[in-house]
Amino acid sequence: MENEEEAFRLDIKTNSRVVERQALWAGIKPGMHVADLCCGAGKVTSILHKLVQPGGVAIGLDGSEKRIEYAKEHYNDNGIKFEHRDIRNLLDDVVVFDFVWMRFLLEYYLSSSFDIVKNVTKIVKPGGILCLVDLDYNCLSHFGMSPKLERTIFAVMKYLEKNADFDPYAGRKLYSFLYDLGYQDINIDVTAHHLIFGELTDIDAFNWMKKFEVISKKVNFNYEEYEGGYEEFLEEFNRFFVNPRRFTYTPVICCRGRKPAT
Q1: Are 60 and 36 in contact (CB under 8 A)?
Q2: CA distance 129 to 72
Q3: For the domain that residue 198 is a member of, what is the CATH number?
Q4: What sign results for the dihedral spanned by CA atoms 226, 228, 230, 231?
Q5: In this structure, are residues 74 and 42 in contact, taking their beta carbons and an 8 Å threshold?
Q6: Among 66, 129, 220, 232, whose CB has the most other CB atoms within 10 angstroms?
Q7: What CA–CA distances, in Å, run from 198 to 205, 211, 246?
C-alpha cells in the first residue's frame, strides 16, 4: 500500500469511537504504559494516549519513516512519543509495557505473523495485556458485482498471498497465536469493520478506491478476463462500488490476552 497518500488514507479512515471501544474492551486503563505497534499515521496512538490519562504514557512504533514523520507532525503533543522501529527485529532494548496494541499489521506478513507476535511478547510485561486486531476475508466480501469482477478479485488476492505475503484471513488466526504462546484470560470480539450499503461516503470511496488502485497497479497480475487489462478492471470495480445497491462488509476480529505473571 506504500504511496504518497498512504498516511493520509490511514488517518482519515480511522474511526476514533471504534478504536476507543476496542481498546476499552481489551482492558486499557488510566495510568498504563502503552505501545502502539505499527502506529501508522499516529491517530490511534493519540486515542490510546487519551485513554490512559491521567498518568499514562503512549508510544507509537512504525517501520516507515514517512509514517513516523506524519505522526510527529500531526499527533506529537501531550507527551506522545513516536519512534522509527521495525518490530520484526529484536526488541530487547525496548522497555516493557502494561498494554501492547497491534492493529491491522499481521495481514501483511502471512509467512511470519506468528513469529512477529512471539517477538512482540518480549515487550509485554508479566501480567500485561496484548491486543491483536485484524481483518478476516479482507477485501473479499461483496454482493452485486459481476461474476467476472468477483473471480478477478479472488484471483488477485490469491496472487498477493503467493507473491506479496499478504494474508486476507489474518483475523481468524489471532486466537491460536495467543493460545500457543501461553496467554491467559483470552477473549475475542467479532464485529463488522466495513459495513457499506446505500450511498457511498467520501471516506469509504477514497479508502477503497485508493486500495484497489494502488494494489492492482503494483502487482504483476495478468487481468486476463479484461481486454483493457488493469484499467478496465479498475473502471468496473469503481462502477460497482459507487452503485448504492452494492453491499460490502469485512469482519474485524479483536483478540486480547494476559501474559502469565510468572
Answers
A1: yes
A2: 26
A3: 3.40.50.150
A4: negative
A5: yes
A6: 129
A7: 12, 20, 7
pTM of the model: 0.91
SS3 state of residue 17: helix
DSSP state of 103: E
How many structural domains are present in the chain? 1
The pLDDT tens digits along the chain (262 residues) read: 565 566 667 676 788 899 999 999 999 999 999 999 999 889 999 999 999 999 999 999 998 888 899 889 888 877 799 999 888 876 777 789 999 999 999 999 999 999 999 999 999 999 999 999 999 999 899 999 999 999 999 999 999 999 999 999 999 999 999 999 999 999 999 999 999 999 999 888 888 877 777 776 667 888 999 999 888 998 999 999 999 999 999 999 999 999 998 7
Q: Which helix (H) or strand (E) holds 158?
A: helix 147-163
**In Å, what is the CA distance from 246 to each residue of 124, 233, 243?**
42, 17, 6
Q: Which domain holds residue 84?
A: 6-258
CB atoms within 10 A of CB 222: 11
Q: In a 10 Å sphere around its CB, with 0-12 CB exposed, 13-18 middle and 19+ buried, how is residue 186 labelled?
A: middle
| Helices 147-163/229-242 angle, 10° precision | 120
Q: What is the DSSP letter of 107?
A: G
Q: Locate 41 and state its grid cell.
A: 499515521
Answer yes or no: is 1 within a domain. Answer: no
- Residue 238 inside a domain? The answer is yes
